[in-house]
Automatic annotation (TrEMBL):
It comes from Dasania phycosphaerae. This is Copper chaperone PCu(A)C. Pfam families: PCuAC (PF04314). InterPro entries: LpqE-like (IPR007410), Lxx211020-like (IPR058248), PCuAC_sf (IPR036182). It comes from the Bacteria.
Amino acid sequence: MRIIVTCLLLMMAGWVQAELKIEQAYVRGLPPGQPNTAAFMSLNNTGSQPLTLTAISSPAAQSVELHTSRQHGDMVHMEKLDSLQIAAAETVVLQPGGHHLMLLGLHQPLAEGDSVILQFSFSDGSQTSAKLAVRSVLNEPAAQQHQHHH
Ligand SMILES: [Cu+2]
């Protein structure tokens, strides 16, 4: 019964579920007072057509942007990307130091154990959403590796 109701709601919303599997997704939990944070995940296109991610939104933030990190000498700059293409049957990994999502203007501080909903929209009109766990920056894999090596 619940499945039927969900399908009806999806149909009424007028969008198609994107053929995308989102894994290893988390939002970086920062100390209170930080207005923005980043989200990381792997995006696996399970369909037979390329997907172009064009917009992301979240009820937890004023806006969500797609960024990439680029090294200029000793400085790492973030640049906004307008879209991200995921080829059929390919996986794009968003990770610290590379592509990532930025949650800008957080409505409230995010702590370990919280969760954040993200909604993804694609150029073909399909959409999907994901619920991401908040992981404290101290528990992030990259941070652990960093500490491990030094
Ligand atoms: Cu960024």
